Amino acid sequence: MIQTKAIVTKKESIAPAWWQITLSAPSLGVNLQPGQFFQVRCGSLFNSYLRRSIFPQRLADDSIALLLWPSPDPGLAWLLARQEGDTLDIIGPLGRGFPLPDSTQNLLLVSDVPLSGVLLGQLHQAIEANYAVTLALEAHRAAGLYPTRHLPPAVELQITTRDGSHGHHGPIAALLPELLHWADLVCAVGSSTLYHTLQQQSKTIRITLQSGYLYGLISPGLFACGWGACLGCTIETERGLKLPCLDGPVFDLSTLTLEGMSL
Amino acid sequence: MIELAPQHKVGLSLTNPIMIASGFAGYGNPYKSLLDMSAFGAVVTQSITLRPRRGPAQPRLVETSGGFILNSGQQNPGVKKVLHGYGKQWAKLPTTVIAHLPADDPADLTRTARALFNAQGSVLAGFELGLPPQATPYEVEQWIRAIQQNSELPVLVKLPLNAPLDLAEAAAYAYADSLVLGSPPWGAALSPQQTMISGPLYSPALLSIATHSLQQLIHLDLPLIAAGGIHTEQDVNILLSAGATAIQLDSVLFVDPQAAETVAQAF
């Protein structure tokens, strides 16, 4: 964990309403695992006081990439307005990321929220390691989907939209049984509804939900600190109280009770 | 060298007047490679109570204009687990450690303070009693005496930031060793999930309240420790010139840890 000034070295529009920002600073990408995060200063003392969490993808030892889209949050809007040459005050990497054990053969990545660098990082690592990778994405409409032409051709895509404008029509839950049967590791980023569905369907398909199979990213959206000092993000698990910023944000979903949890 | 307990037989000397407030450094050093803890005169731990407290359900945090409301509800694993998990780490910290005890049943407070004081190899230098916003002068005296009953360490009393004078006078009457001004006021705001969250409000705007409270209590013959909204060396100088003996940094540790260390290194 370091606090440093990172420079915006590149900002590009990769699709309508999707931007990718590249940040560079010495050691910024060293040891960064998919699912780990950085806390970024995104304003002044009286505007967006707390740092915002970003979940980047590692590009090199000294650079990381962020995916951004328009947000009602003033801090993230400030971040999206940065230009090449601007500097950001950044702390990280923080927390624990997704595992990628050597025993993995079939990796399923699932998301029902705009795709962040989290799953992209995991996807690229898995492709480099020659794992079979399926990426299952859900969006309300086609315009909300990550521009999939940027994905490696080795990835199998399964896409659903709620309005039927792209891919399958309806929620992603309908596609999951077959995919869960195929996968030996599942990494998800999304809503508590998605995690609950994954838990239930995994139990049905695999008889029991064993540890080491299904992982999800649990983030409260805003951390007061990000390193275990404030206790603001505490959640209840079957193994006691845990801090997403320190014990997570990636959790084995076999240990979590999601009822009443708002993500 | 500054002295926070000049009337106490053991005393509480700090090499630097800049402390870290309770709730901003866990039970030791969550900042790891981020901060040089030796730059700070002392660190006050998270709340420690006799029995574990789970704290409220999520959401606990909401950002406001120029600050945030955070209610962790004195979450802590209880004194036994705190000692087991962190007691040895305190001895390795390159700064003074003070235990924060939230106001509680007096008998429980006595047992908590005794357990901490008597712990093998304990390096604790003192206790900080945290008062609730609705504390009465009578309760303040009871809580202080409960801590003093079985411990020989100095007791700092953290008053509500806009403390009525009678609470401070009650603390002085019960031989508190110094006063901390103070615990932030409570606020309430809607979270993005449209849940109303109530809790302590942290903001740079609290600096002026801390300065005002300091002026109200400056006539008391006790060291005063200022806390609330302090972000810069200039803020510290304002409070020291207004009569503060020491300073507790709080939310600046979350917003800009390096700035907090820079402030400490300036003194």
List the helices and strands and how they pair.
The complex is a heterodimer of chains A (263) and B (267).
Chain A: E1 2-15, E2 18-24, E3 37-40, E4 52-54, E5 57-60, E6 63-68, H1 74-80, E7 87-94, E8 106-111, H2 117-128, E9 132-139, E10 156-161, E11 168-169, H3 176-182, E12 185-189, H4 192-206, E13 214-217, E14 235-237, E15 240-242, E16 250-252
Parallel strand pairs in A: 8-9, 8-12, 9-10, 10-11, 12-13
Antiparallel strand pairs in A: 1-2, 1-7, 2-6, 3-4, 3-7, 5-6, 13-16, 14-15
Helix pairs in contact in A: 3-4
Chain B: E1 2-3, E2 13-14, E3 18-20, E4 42-47, E5 61-64, E6 67-70, H1 79-92, E7 96-102, H2 106-118, E8 126-130, H3 137-148, E9 155-160, H4 165-173, E10 178-183, E11 186-190, E12 196-202, H5 207-217, E13 224-227, H6 233-241, E14 246-249, H7 252-255, H8 257-265
Parallel strand pairs in B: 3-4, 3-14, 4-7, 7-8, 8-9, 9-10, 10-13, 13-14
Antiparallel strand pairs in B: 1-2, 5-6, 6-12, 11-12
Helix pairs in contact in B: 2-3, 3-4
Describe the overall structure.
The complex is a heterodimer of chains A (263) and B (267). Chain A has 263 residues and is an alpha/beta fold. Helix content of chain A is 16%, strand content 33%. In chain A, helix 4 (192-206) links the parallel strand 12 (185-189) and strand 13. Chain A starts with a strand and ends in an 11-residue tail after the last strand. With 267 residues, chain B is of the alpha/beta class. Helices cover 30% and strands 24% of the residues of chain B. Chain B is built from eight helices and 14 strands. Chain B has helices at residues 79-92, 106-118, 137-148, 165-173, 207-217, 233-241, 252-255, 257-265, and strands at 2-3, 13-14, 18-20, 42-47, 61-64, 67-70, 96-102, 126-130, 155-160, 178-183, 186-190, 196-202, 224-227, 246-249. In chain B, the strands form three sheets. An eight-stranded parallel beta barrel of chain B has the order 3-4-7-8-9-10-13-14, surrounded by six helices. A four-stranded antiparallel beta sheet of chain B has the order 5-6-12-11, with no helix packed on it. Chain B is globular and about 45 Å long. The N and C termini of chain B lie close together (11 Å).
